[in-house]
Design goal:
Layout lengths: L1 E3 L5 H17 L4 E5 L4 H11 L4 E6 L6 E6 L4
Helix pairs in contact: 1-2
């Protein structure tokens, strides 16, 4: 699943991020690709990920620092 946060203010982006992660988890996805761009949102996503109960790991992509791969916990 792809979560694109371009054009969101931080608080709205946080809500959208949480909603989409929950949807991905319930749909059985194992990972998501998060697009932030290179602004303030880029610095927030790692914090959001480590505090989210459904996310196991968050990695910033080396080829594009404005994108992240997140791995979801097993559904159960």
């Amino acid at each position: 699943m792809r979560i694109d946060l371009h054009g969101f203010y931080v608080q709205n982006g946080w809500r959208y991020f949480n909603q989409k992660v929950e949807e991905a988890y319930l749909a059985g996805y194992k990972k998501c690709h998060v697009i932030t761009g290179q602004g303030i949102m880029m610095r927030e996503v790692e914090v959001w990920s480590y505090n989210h109960p459904r996310i196991r790991e968050c990695t910033q992509n080396k080829h594009n620092p404005g994108s992240f791969s997140i791995k979801l916990k097993k559904k159960g």
